[in-house]
Write a structure and sequence with these properties.
- The protein is an all-alpha fold.
- It has 4 helices and no strands.
- About 5% of the residues are buried.
């Protein structure tokens, strides 16, 4: 869309659309972070037991999916939104890796007794 030529209706073309889409994406991500932070505080105030097997399965699924999406994004355009999406996916990928350690230890019999969150 930003590569479309200028015209009588859009004297600057549509180059600003890319920046506006990046802004909308950033605002949405901030809202998601605020929601996650709120849920984390609630969980800290009232700890619950962790279902280690389910967390491990979700983390493995997220790892595989994020690897596939990162591979696809590296093959795409190099514009601002694609780079932002790739950075986001890489952060999610690291989060999946980070979740595998505690999840696997909480699914062991010794971990079930000692880990609460």
């Amino acid at each position: 869309m930003p590569l479309r030529p200028t015209g009588p209706r859009h004297s600057y073309g549509l180059r600003r659309v890319e920046a506006l889409a990046a802004l909308a994406n950033s605002l949405f991500m901030l809202a998601v972070v605020a929601l996650l932070l709120w849920q984390a505080v609630l969980r800290l105030l009232e700890p619950r037991e962790i279902a280690g097997e389910m967390v491990t399965l979700v983390a493995l699924g997220g790892l595989v999916l994020n690897l596939a999406v990162a591979w696809l994004l590296t093959r795409g355009e190099g514009d601002l939104n694609t780079r932002g999406a790739l950075l986001h996916v890489m952060g999610d990928l690291l989060g999946s890796v980070a979740a595998l350690g505690p999840a696997s230890s909480s699914s062991s019999p010794a971990g079930r007794r000692s880990i609460r969150c």
